[in-house]
Amino acid sequence: MTREKLTDIFAALGERLKDFGATHETAAVIERATAANGWFTRADIVRAVEAIRSRMLERAKLEQWLADYPQLPVARPRTVGVIMAGNLPLVGFFDLLCTLTAGHACRYKPAAKDSVLTDYIVAQLREVWPQVPVEKYTDQPLDAVIATGGDNAWRVFRARFGGIPAIFRGNRTSVALLAGDETTGELEALAEDVFSYSGLGCRNVSKLLLPRGYDVARLVEALDRHPMPNDKYRNNFVQRSAVLRMQQIDHISGSFFLLREDKAFPSAISEITFSFYDTREEALAWLTAHDDEIQCVVGRRVTHPRSTEFGGSQSPTLLDYPDGADVMQFLSEI
Questions:
Q1: Nearest-CA neighbor of 44 among 257, 201, 188?
Q2: pTM metric for this prediction
Q3: Which among 102, 121, 99 is positioned nearest to 26, based on CA atoms?
Q4: Alpha helix segments (H runs only) across the chain
Q5: pLDDT exceeds 90 at position 191
Q6: Is the peptide bond before 77 cis (omega within 30 degrees of 0)?
Q7: More confidently predicted of 53 and 152
Q8: Rounded CA gap, 57 and 9, in Å?
Q9: Which of 86, 214, 215, 235 is the most buried (most CB within 10 A)?
């Protein structure tokens, strides 16, 4: 199939998603999806679908993206397994999109807690492209695999698929580098980077780098203005707060989140760690040293290959490849 035809198909899929959440059919899909995963909210799901529609499925953006890969679609299609995470709504869609636009067949395995949404999108794609080479994952041999999960799953992936071309993704988180003179609007946008999707994504900020002498109270005030993600998030806050108090660990408590000075990344939902730096060069060196643990870096004009402005961490584009691994280049070489 030609690149132009593939672009037509996925642009048409984007058109079908324009009214997602506003129709009886999609409202029922959302209801089933939130019942299957208590962390998902209606607002999260609608936001995720709109981000896919507007940032990945608009014709001009698809054309611009695919223009960087003149070798695609491939002349010899292969069968690629796509094993998806389920921490965010439709978090695995991008890998499915890459696989199909590269010209390959896809066997996808949605996470149990995100299968409702993923299966719905695949069904919509079949309406546009009845012969779409997509089927559910089976144990039949694959030519390549893209697998995403936690660090324990990552070890399983390596053992199971070690003999074929693969992209394996484990746990990562995101960092914000503050300069100290951020506007109120930038700090409120940072709250979106922290709390959207209940902070469960690898692109959610959970670690802050602050200039020494930074007014932490002003930061807490800005974060506190953000709505609480959901009851599950608050339950984690209550439990983690009790642990920190019991262990007599210094921390700052917001309305539904905890701030704690620590050089390490936090180990619990609802907790944000921060550390101070004396020079910007010191902060950039820290980012370089921890690059394997970081998905993206939020801040104003940050020098980092996976950087974004405040409020942009959960709005990735087609070129924001997870872990910095160019999926389309990988798919062109298998």
A1: 201
A2: 0.95
A3: 121
A4: 3-16, 24-36, 42-56, 59-67, 93-101, 115-128, 151-161, 184-195, 216-224, 231-246, 280-289, 327-333
A5: yes
A6: no
A7: 53
A8: 9
A9: 86
Name the residue with tokens 């199909």: 100
> Rounded to an integer, what distance in angstroms lies between the CA atom of residue 112 and that of residue 110?
6
Sheet of 79-83: strand order equals 134-136, 105-109, 79-83, 144-148, 166-169
pLDDT above 90 for 165: yes
Q: Is the pLDDT of residue 320 over 80?
A: yes
Does the pLDDT of residue 137 top 80, yes or no?
yes
Those residues with Cβ within 8 angstroms of residue 233's Cβ, 6 or more apart along the chain or in another chain: 195, 198, 199, 256, 269, 270
Average pLDDT, the chain: 96
Question: Residue 322 is encoded by which pair of tokens?
Answer: 């997870």
Sheet holding 252-253, edge to edge: 252-253, 258-261, 271-277, 205-211, 173-177, 294-299, 307-308
d(CA 49, CA 143): 30
Torsions phi, psi for 255 (to 5 deg): -70, -30
Predicted pLDDT of residue 139: 86
Tell me the helix, strand and coil percentages in the chain, rounded to 5: 45, 15, 40
Residue 155 pLDDT grade (very low, low, confident, very high; cuts 50, 70, 90): confident
- The residue among 224, 218, 227, 226 whose CA lies nearest residue 183 is 218
pLDDT of residue 296: 97
- Taken in order 48, 54, 58, 64, the sign of the CA dihedral is negative
302-307 contacts at long range (C-beta below 8 A, 24 or more positions apart): 302/177
pLDDT at 321: 97
Distance CA 169, CA 143 (A): 18
